[in-house]
Design goal:
Catalytic activity: L-histidine = trans-urocanate + NH4(+)
Distance between the termini: 25 Å
Number of helices: 20
EC number: 4.3.1.3
Number of domains: 2
Family: Belongs to the PAL/histidase family.
CATH architecture of the largest domain: Up-down Bundle
Oligomer: single chain
Enzyme class: lyase
Radius of gyration: 26 Å
Largest sheet: 3 strands, antiparallel
Order of helices and strands: EHEHHEHHEEHEEHHHHHHHEEHHHHHHH
CATH topology of the largest domain: Fumarase C, Chain A, domain 2
Protein name: Histidine ammonia-lyase
CATH class of the largest domain: Mainly Alpha
Strand order of the largest sheet: 4-6-7
Length: 510
């Protein structure tokens, strides 16, 4: 069981909870910190002090004093009025991440919320009761107000959840699990919704998918190198040490390892002097993507353990400070960076697809067709890859450079980080399909070259691929092959296929 403290949650731990059904609990020290900050809120209410969000309205209504007899009603009205998200729900795994991250942030002890409410959040995680949260409607400051309000609705028994494969009312799920909804007290509604957990949750899930995809892209491109009799000299260690980027050096090393016993690669001058950039520059381009992903990982792990609501309570209530930690700019930048980095993985992959199917660029059958002219082969698969790459270019436009004033100009600069995170997730889905197309074409190319000559690592990958995508012996509905290959990549456990990646990941985390 994972113990949350509000201080040390990692992406690997998030992965265990989201994908391996790891259960969670709060440390007693973090609960004690939450209790102390709650006592401070109760003193403020009893003494009728003027403190934003506790005894006042919100946003432009921050100067409106609320009578202490109405503090519960204030919190309930806040949740109901702010729950106006629209569009399709976030994927269930993202919504679950949102709940976990909100609980972790509240355990830091700066938010003035009762441990009971945090316990209810942990119940949602442990019992797989996942809030239905619309994706659209957040400006990314003051935090993810609309999405988190839909999360909070579930806690008070007014929202909807995904539960055991169905979409039901939260009350129905609670009754089946013996859980009671909570009645929000002073500040608790604000503490639940004033944060960056929607953009961060989507960012966490997107990063975990992007990391896996980046490793897979190296395997797929290695198989492409074999299919095109690529020149291995360009991956020599001294070339990459001479430039000095660790991620570039590591990418080249992994590809050398994958192809170490291949009989399909060539040396410079053997067939040609040099390869095109989409092959020769794989370590430089993919390595740069890893640099961006490393940056994203660092920012996510900070934000996952950050207090991002407002106001924050310090020194046992002696200081209650209204600040701006809810502003999502750091994550907005990180999401935009990830968008560009992953889009480039697709961009260079599409160029390798072109080299695999274009008879003017290789000595393989045109379009890898089993019967030229009568059978079109992979011709239109490249069209699809080109379309997805072009769509990615539109989605990669930075969301973080936009801002629209809100709340009567009180909130006059916002991050749009949640839009950035949603677009990053879509780019990753598109990129996975582009790489799936490259995988299909590369498998067909190595068949023409001779599967028995493949490296042992790429041959294992090829064998897995052939379980879901048969050899192209005649034209068929390739849409199904693309989706099957993409789903294979999404669910593939690369560590089981390549145990050496464990050592790579450990090195990357140093």
């Amino acid at each position: 069981m994972l113990t949350l403290t509000g201080q040390s949650l990692t992406l690997e731990q998030m992965k265990e909870v989201l994908y391996d059904n790891q259960k969670v609990r709060a440390s007693e020290n973090s609960f004690e910190a939450a209790r102390k900050s709650r006592e401070a809120v109760e003193r403020i209410v009893s003494e009728s002090k003027v403190v934003y969000g506790i005894t006042t309205g919100f946003g432009k209504f921050s100067d409106v004093l609320i009578n202490k007899d109405h503090v519960q009603e204030l919190q309930l009205n806040l949740i109901r009025s702010h729950a106006c998200g629209v569009g399709e729900p976030f994927p269930e795994v993202v919504a679950k991440a949102m709940v976990l991250l909100r609980a972790n942030a509240l355990l830091k002890g700066y938010s003035g919320i009762r441990p009971l409410v945090i316990e209810r959040l942990l119940d949602l995680v442990n019992k797989d009761i996942t809030p239905v949260i619309p994706q659209q409607g957040s400006l990314g400051a003051s935090g993810d107000l609309a999405p988190l309000s839909h999360l909070a609705l579930v806690l008070i028994g007014e929202g909807e959840v995904f539960y055991k494969g169905n979409r039901v009312s939260s009350l129905e799920a609670f009754q089946k699990e013996g859980i009671f909804p909570v009645t929000l007290q002073a500040k608790e509604g604000l503490a639940l919704i004033n944060g960056t957990q929607a953009m961060t949750a989507m960012g966490v899930v997107s990063y975990l998918e992007a990391e896996q995809l980046a490793y897979q892209s190296e395997l797929i491109s290695s198989m492409t190198i074999e299919g095109l009799n690529g020149i291995i000299d360009a991956f020599a260690e001294e070339v990459h040490i001479a430039r000095g980027y660790k991620q570039q050096i590591d990418t080249a090393a992994r590809i050398r390892g994958y192809l170490s016993d291949s009989l399909l690669t060539t040396m410079q001058g053997e067939l040609r002097v040099q390869d095109a950039y989409s092959l020769r520059c794989i370590p430089q381009v993919h390595g740069a993507t890893w640099q961006a992903l490393d940056y994203v990982k660092e920012k996510l792990e900070i934000e996952m353990n950050a207090a991002t609501d407002n106001p924050l309570i310090f020194d046992d209530g002696e200081k209650v400070i209204s600040g701006g930690n809810f502003h999502g700019q750091p994550i907005a930048f990180a999401m935009d960076f990830m968008k560009i980095a992953v889009a480039e993985m697709a961009n260079i992959s599409e160029r390798r697809i072109e080299r695999l199917i274009n008879p003017q660029l290789n000595d393989l059958p045109p379009f890898l067709s089993p019967e030229q002219g009568l059978q079109s082969g992979a011709m239109i698969m490249q069209y699809v890859a080109a379309s997805l790459v072009s769509e990615n270019k539109t989605l990669a436009h930075p969301a973080s450079v936009d801002s629209i004033p809100s709340s009567a100009n009180q909130e006059d600069h916002v991050s749009m980080g949640t839009i950035g995170s949603r677009h990053a997730h879509q780019i990753i889905q598109n990129t996975r399909r582009v790489l799936a197309i490259e995988m299909i074409c590369a498998m067909q190319a190595v068949e023409y070259r001779g599967v028995g000559k493949m490296a042992s690592t790429t041959k294992r990958f090829y064998d897995i691929g052939r379980l879901v995508v048969p050899s192209i012996i005649k034209d068929r509905i390739f849409s199904k092959d693309i989706e099957n290959a993409a789903e294979c990549l999404k669910t593939m456990d690369l560590i089981k296929l390549l145990p050496q990646l464990n050592d790579v990941k450990s090195t990357n985390q140093l």
